[in-house]
Amino acid sequence: MLKKIVIERAERLHQIPADLFLALRRKSQRAAKRGVEVIDLSLIDPHESPSNEVVDEICLAARDGGTHRYLLGFGLAEFRHKVAQWFEARFEVSLNSEFEVLPLQGVWEGLWGLPLAFVNPGEVVILPDPCYPVYRAGAILAGAQVETMPLLERNDFLPNLQHIPEAVAHRAKLLFLNYPNNPTTAVADLSFFQEVVGFARTYNVAVVHDATYSQMTYDDYQAPSFLQARGAKGVGIELHSLSMTHNMAGWRIGFAVGNRQLVAGLAAVRGCGYAGPSAALQRAAGRTLSPTLTHRDAHTRRRDAAVQQLRDLGWKLSRPKATPFVWARVPGRYTSLGFSRRLFRRTGVLVTPGSGFGEWGEGHVRISLTVPEDQLRLALDRIRDHAFIWQRKRRATRE
User: Is position 398 within any domain?
Assistant: First the structure.
């Protein structure tokens, strides 16, 4: 009889928290199979399709026989040139398209690839808390020591760089930032980014700025680029996505711009085992790259409806200037996980517990606005009809 072998996962995988959004998706699917009419407000996943222009462009590019070959190195020159043109028009920042622009398979590629490129085991990566989970996962895969900066409401969810211990700052290789912020919806101005540049120069730290939602803004607000700060290109790299602006989340296309050493290091990680986005996708994305958000009016209506109705129910939340979600304090005396579980059992509405983004996300929930308007309004009506969940005068800290 053959002995069954034991195949154990690497210790690094045990250090990475379980995939929050996969767990939420599975929870939603299991409930749907039981007949629950689920409204999933946990994932940031645009329901609109890409425009006909985008679809036509990729079909045209795919029919070009030259787009089916391997695309190595820095990717398609045509796309990189379009990105540089767009960046200068949008942010008034000049980029060398040959060395300072890199197409990405979505922003995720940059978020986990940069620690692999620049961080040795035991060196420090500084992350905001709360933050998108892939930040922590990428640092752990690189063997980094993770240190966090609390994002507190009293400081407008901006990190206080002066509170980072000297010993941590001197050992840090990378500092991650994300504005407009996921999950808090906070925004940053150029004065803050200028402060970050000063910190990076003082402690020889490279800055990674995730600007995924820089084009997902409301009203007259326009989010600045980190690279607009004086000297920023000398210390940092910025990551952008076409997921929300062109409803291309599943197509996985974005780009990194900025410091050429950081860009080259990220490209070197890619060269170890995989290729960038397909030439057809890069060509189509370049031809449709636009500084304006599609369906802006619909996004604004969903934001206004969610903020107004939740405030009417006594919830505490700000009106976001950017991002396709809201960040709300948990009503009542629940933990974020306890409240999200109880809300789902009672209403079929699934939201993301803030604790899934880190220790300092506790006490909040993130609510996505990317579902159709009728679905969002139905979800808000269900929440209103079950206000007794948090209005009861009893403690329910564990669910």
Answer: no
Contact 214, 351 (CB under 8 A): no
Q: What are phi and psi of 21, to 5 degrees?
A: -80, -30
Q: What is the CATH number of the domain that holds 217?
A: 3.40.640.10
Q: Quick one: 152 and 264 in the same domain?
A: yes
Show which of 288, 305, 333 is a domain's final residue.
288
CA gap 357, 150 in Å, rounded: 12
List the domain range (segments joined by +) for residue 350.
12-41+295-391
- Tens place of pLDDT per residue across the chain (399 aa): 677 888 888 888 888 877 777 788 888 888 888 888 999 999 887 777 777 777 887 788 778 777 777 777 788 888 999 999 999 999 999 999 999 999 998 898 999 899 999 999 999 999 999 999 999 999 999 999 999 999 999 999 999 999 999 999 999 999 999 999 999 999 999 999 999 999 999 999 999 999 999 999 999 899 999 999 999 999 999 999 987 777 776 777 899 999 999 999 999 998 887 777 888 788 878 877 865 555 677 889 999 999 999 999 999 999 999 999 999 999 988 999 999 999 999 999 999 999 999 999 999 999 999 999 999 999 999 999 998 888 764 444 444
For the sheet with 325-329, list strands across it. 325-329, 364-368, 352-353
The answer to whether the pTM exceeds 0.85 is yes
Query: For strand 349-350 and strand 325-329, is the pairing parallel, antiparallel, or unpaired?
Result: unpaired
Whether residue 5 is contained in a domain is answered as no
Domain boundary among 243, 261, 288: 288
Please count the structural domains in the chain.
Answer: 2
